[in-house]
Amino acid sequence: MEFTHLLAAVDQVTDPFVLGVILVAAAFGLFVGAVPGLSATMAVALLVPVTFFMDPVPAVAMMVTATAMAITSGDIPGCLLRIPGTPSSAAYTDEAFAMTRKGNADMALGASIVFSFVGGLFGTIVLITAAPALADFALNFSSYEFFWLVVLGLTCAIFISPSSTLKGFVSLLIGLFLACVGMNNPAAYPRFTFGNENLLNGVTLLPMMVGMFAISEVLRYSVKSRQAPLDIKTQVGNIFTGMWGLTRKYPMSILRGSVLGTAVGALPGAGADIAAWMSYGVSKKFSKEPEKFGTGHVEGIVEAGAANNSALAGAWIPALVFGIPGDSITAIVIGVLYMKNLAPGPMIFTNSPVEMYSVFIVFILANIIMLPLGYLAVKLAKTVLSVPTNILMPMILLFCIVGTFAINNSVFDVVVMLCVGLLAYFMEENDIPIAPAVLGVVLGGMLEENFIFSMIKADGDFLMFFSRPIACALGVFTLFIWLFPLLAKLYKRARPAQKVSYE
Amino acid sequence: MKIDDALTGLLLGIFSVAVFIAALSFPPIPGQSFGASLFPVWIAIGMFVCAICLVVQGFRQRAQGYRMTVPAWLHDKGAILRFLLIPATLVFYFEVADYLGFLITAALVLVVLFRAFAVRWLTSLVVAVIGALAIHGMFYGILKVPLPWGVLEFLAW
Question: Do B81 and B151 sit in the same domain of this protein?
Fold first, then answer.
């Protein structure tokens, strides 16, 4: 039974069209990742209109491949120019550039690519084993469990975000409000539509995502002063030399980075960038030579490079099993999956086993072709990085307009894209993080629906939310996270910090 | 554009009150105590609390000597123009695309944007034509999106 699904999946993925799509997406991802200012999330947002016209498997293949490549190639300008190509490379950009200045650019780039591959493969294996098992376990979840899972997800998004908790809340509430618009609520009453029938179905998710991640970037670029031309002087040799030595020298770092990356990726709201920062910090803490960090030491790059790629696969676990996005990329993916009639949830492995196996195979494939294509990207770095941004940005704008319009033939969608783009731009300028809003938008409906249904089932008794063992555990855990800052404060007050004197 | 936390808070506060008032008018589900208004009301209350916190935070920052500064790009006419060009592009595209057709509209839009972003004339013209053809080929040719031909109808394929 399962084997036939696997064979069918292999058959689907090895279709020449799908393989071609993977190759094109890989080139696209490498390019977008390598150009500073264009992120992996933006790569997916730009792919949305294209995937709209495809079958589910090539559509998903495109998004998986492009993101894996973009996260990896983001390391290239970081290493050569000290400008991270995507936010996920920012954690170790200084380190990589320091290596370049010491003449070790080969090793820095090699480590980035090879251990991205290892981390990505690790995350994929976890995804393949954990997601179906988790789905099996979640099959008898009721609205109580789902309610707590969503609350837990939203909580993570706020508490993990590096900016202030207050602004995280503001962002989340904006997202939840946007999710309220329309009549997709348990009462089916049109809310905040102002009589506009375009809004009856709510603010459409995909145009919103294109606005948040592509238009906001174009707006930001438009007001920036001129950029200095990029100039690469470094000559890069064979980047794969010495990689086996590094693997043998830092096996623990590789493992730690991959595990931490997968876990952070799976947490809602935190993606590859936060995984890389955390991993770099952990690496320094556990290193035998922490004093070398920051001076061009490869250890942190090995660990954080593995972490940001494993986070990509990790983020798919809650996205597929619960419909709770692990990062901004999977938030877009969920929107696309719904359009392809592949509604995420515990049933997805039962309902669409072939498609799910195909996703797994594509993940493996994408990570494998990362090695040769990454090598090629490094060789072509000079050409890629010399594509002027002032030509790219207008093209991206036009592409977004045409693409978003094409999805539903709706001018209104394009207006939504622009408005959300403006909103996202103003939010980021004022240090209000975007990730909680994205999560709020995607999860708002689910949160409300599960809450109202549970309350109706429980006849208004909130204690019923703790009546089932798993729901109870999730609920207590969530409340603990909420109360933790308060408890920590009380504890500190009860036991004033002991003063340490050195004299 | 960075504005003061107190001002952000004020805007959010006004918005939350508007949401609250609008939400109160939503009818309840007959026989149920939880209607369409429950979530929007909670969200509005949450926003209002956040708004107050932001205002307090903003005033604290002011007390510490923080002054809201007008961002540099608002003094730069070029930057303002480029910023406004983005919504303008959208309006222009939908106003004229049906009449002029996609290819001409797209090329025009690109030339104007390229020039605004200081691309040289020759490059602008060449890349605009290639870009319009490329996007057309991709959406019309490969993805079968019915882009308008407009006055170039006689070329349609």
Answer: yes
Partner A contacted by B121 (CB < 8 A): no
Partners of A191 in the β-ladder: A182
Query: Strand runs (DSSP E) across A326-415, as ranges?
Result: none
Name the B residues in 77-116 with CB < 8 Å from any A CB: 79-80, 82-83, 85-87, 89-90, 93-94, 102, 106, 109-110, 113-114
Length of chain B: 157
Same domain? B66 vs B82: no
Give the residue from B70, B85, B103 where a domain finishes. B70
Mean residue pLDDT across chain A: 87
Residues A420, A138 contacting (CB under 8 angstroms)? no
Query: Min CA distance, B102 vs chain A (Å)?
Result: 9
- Map A36-54 to HEC letters: CCCCHHHHHHHHHHHHHCC
Are B11 and B62 members of one domain? Answer: yes
Asked whether the predicted pLDDT for residue A502 surpasses 50, the reply is: no
Q: Which pLDDT tens digit goes with each residue over A288-303?
A: 888 888 888 889 999 9
Of the residues B70, B91, B120, the one at which a domain ends: B70
Does A27 contact chain B (CB < 8 Å)?
no
Q: Choose the closest CB to A418 out of B26, B35, B90.
A: B90
d(CA B39, CA A259): 37
B13-26 pLDDT tens trace: 999 999 999 888 88
Cβ proximity of B69 and B16 under 8 Å: no
**Shortest CA gap A184–chain B (Å):** 10
Touching check for A237 and chain B: CB below 8 Å? Answer: no
- For chains A and B, what is the number of CB pairs under 8 angstroms? 150
Measured between alpha carbons, how far is B106 from A253 in angstroms, rounded to an integer?
50
Selecting from A176, A191, A226 the residue whose C-beta is nearest the C-beta of B26 gives A191
Residue A199 Cα, gap to closest chain B Cα (Å): 16
Nearest Cα to A364, choosing from A171, A12, A165, A124?
Answer: A124
Strand partners, A182: A191
Calculate the dihedral angle through the C-alpha atoms of B101, B104, B108, B110, rounding to the nearest 10 degrees.
90
Q: Residue A160 is encoded by which pair of tokens? A: 């993990």
Range of the domain at B115: 76-157
**Residue A501: pLDDT band with limits 50, 70, 90:** very low
Number of domains composing chain B:
2
- Return the residue in A154, A165, A222, A452 with the most chain B beta carbons within 10 A, the one to mutate for interface testing: A222
Q: Give how far A459 is from chain B: nearest CA, Å.
A: 9
Query: Are B81 and B157 members of one domain?
Result: yes
Q: Which residue of A has its CA nearest to B78?
A: A223
One domain, residues B49 and B86: no
Is B63 in the same domain as B111? no
CB atoms under 10 Å from CB of A481, counted, come to 14
The pTM (predicted TM-score) of the whole model is 0.88
Distance of CA A76 to the CA centre of its chain: 19
Are B49 and B88 part of one and the same domain? no
Residue A489: the pLDDT is 76
Residues B106, B132 contacting (CB under 8 angstroms) = yes
- Tell me how long chain A is: 503
Give the count of beta carbons closer than 10 Å to the beta carbon of residue B129. 15
Is B89 in the same domain as B135?
Answer: yes
